Amino acid sequence: MRQGSGGQAVIRFRAAGVSLLLAHLLLVGWLTLRPLDVPWMTAANLSPFAGIKADLTLGPAAATRRIGGELLLLAPLGVLLPMAGGRLFVSPWASLARTVAAGALISLAIELGQTGVPGQVVDVDSLILNTIGVALAHVLFVPACRARLRRRKQQRIRMLPRAGHGVPQGATPTISRVGIAP
Q: How far apart (Å, rounded) are the C-alpha atoms in residues 56 and 129?
């Protein structure tokens, strides 16, 4: 195995993360920002948790479907954003904070974009639930995946040939001596 192949794997991993991230954002944009032909519209919900309370009054099945849909809409960002970043050795708290902040900003951009789309209604509860979904996905998957990838990287490093173990290394570089001025 060549030493440079680990760097190529990281580049492919990041490229896959960026590609999947863009594909997911395009799908979310299409789902949330397309005009809808509806006979009537509800008012924008700017009161936190008011929409969640209203969803809970619809019964367990409808509440699970509506709240779960909002939780799952941006949840893949909790995994795809760190994957696109490509960092293995990073503080778990810093990674969580960056990912949740980016997820909240993307959700906010979607909600603000919906203000000009016919048939779409701004809902602050969507922002809250989308952000919670990103955080949950990150906490559930990213630390375990990073630990697994770090173990694989350590195994690859152990498998590399070491200096003096049958691999010719060439001549040792020397530094030319410079005389001291009088």
A: 14
Predicted pLDDT at 166:
55
Q: Do 123 and 50 touch, CB atoms closer than 8 A?
A: no
- Taking the C-alpha atoms of residue 116 and residue 87, their distance in angstroms, rounded to an integer, is 37
Closest to 87 in 3D by CA, of 157, 1, 13: 13
Please indicate, yes or no, whether the overall pTM of this predicted structure exceeds 0.85: no
Residue appearing with tokens 């009088």:
182
Q: Note whether 56 and 119 are within 8 A (CB).
A: no
The total of other beta-carbon atoms located within 10 Å of residue 106's CB is: 19
Count CA atoms within 13 Å of residue 96 on its CB side.
13
* CA–CA gap between residue 149 and residue 144 (Å, rounded): 9
Q: pLDDT tens digits, residue range 39-74?
A: 877 888 899 999 999 999 999 999 999 999 999 999
